[in-house]
């Protein structure tokens, strides 16, 4: 079962934490990232107007893992190079896990996030190299290995990006869907998309991001 629309995970986590629940645990962050996450509630309400919320409720999540290590810029020459920062949150349930990271390389005046997600499409995740341009990973509705980014995630209309090329090299597989995973981004390109339910559609002539480096999450 798909987890909720990534744009809606920020306020969901914060609402549970504010109520004292332990289903989710916010990551230890500093400076503007922590403040920005707190502002995501109002941004997500606007984002849900811009796109339909995906089906399925998120399960209980563990504590956030350690932040992934951002690498050097790379990928398509006409795309904006981006890298990962600290872990922002983790959500997991049987059959799916999602870890959100701060995303750097875009406008520093606002905040951005990238979700690394795994789903049980044809069995539990395994280690290996996966071409993100091929089915089932070419659409968020069907992907087993999913990279979903939001530019200006706390703004009134966050811009969504989904994988369109490159390889995801998984060196630590989240076999139990607990948020424990790690690996590298090999020439990954994320293209601007529209989001209808869980279906992503590339925007003709839209923007793109070039993602390189690595990620690591230790779950909770």
Strand order of the largest sheet: 1-2-3-5-6-7-9
Find the structural class using helix and strand composition: mainly beta
What is the percentage of strand-forming residues? 35-45%
Q: Compute the number of helices.
A: 3
**Which of globular, elongated, flat, extended, rod-shaped describes the shape?**
globular
Gyration radius over CA: 15 Å
User: What is the arithmetic mean of pLDDT?
Assistant: 75
For the terminal residues, how far apart are their CA atoms? Answer: 21 Å
Number of domains: 1
In total, how many beta strands?
9
List SSEs in N-to-C order: HHHEEEEEEEEE
Helix content: 10-25%
Low-confidence stretches: 11-75
How would you characterize this protein structure?
By secondary structure, the chain is mostly beta strands. The protein has one domain (6-218). 14% of the residues lie in helices and 40% in strands. The protein contains 3 helices and 9 strands. Strands 1-2-3-5-6-7-9 form a 7-stranded mixed β-barrel. The longest helix is centred in the N-terminal third of the chain and has 13 residues, at 6-18. Residues 11-75 have low confidence and may be disordered.
Give keywords.
mainly beta; 220 residues; single chain; seven-stranded mixed beta barrel; 14% helix
């Amino acid at each position: 079962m798909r987890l909720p629309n990534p744009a809606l995970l920020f306020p969901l986590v914060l609402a549970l934490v504010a109520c004292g629940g332990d289903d989710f645990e916010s990551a230890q962050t500093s400076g503007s990232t922590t403040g920005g996450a707190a502002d995501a509630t109002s941004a997500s309400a606007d984002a849900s107007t811009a796109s339909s919320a995906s089906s399925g409720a998120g399960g209980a999540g563990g504590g956030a893992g350690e932040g992934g290590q951002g690498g050097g810029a790379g990928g398509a020459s006409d795309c904006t190079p981006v890298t990962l920062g600290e872990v922002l949150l983790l959500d997991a349930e049987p059959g799916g896990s999602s870890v959100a990271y701060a995303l750097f390389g875009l406008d520093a005046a606002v905040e951005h996030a990238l979700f690394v997600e795994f789903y049980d499409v044809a069995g539990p995740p395994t280690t290996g190299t996966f071409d993100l341009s091929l089915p089932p990973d070419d659409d968020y509705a069907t992907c087993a290995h999913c990279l979903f980014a939001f530019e200006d995630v706390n703004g009134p209309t966050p811009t969504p990006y989904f994988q369109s090329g490159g390889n995801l090299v998984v060196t630590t597989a989240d076999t139990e869907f607990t948020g424990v995973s790690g690996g590298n981004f090999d020439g990954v390109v994320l293209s601007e998309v529209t989001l209808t339910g869980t279906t992503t559609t590339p925007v003709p002539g839209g923007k793109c991001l070039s993602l390189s480096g690595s990620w690591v999450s230790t779950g909770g």
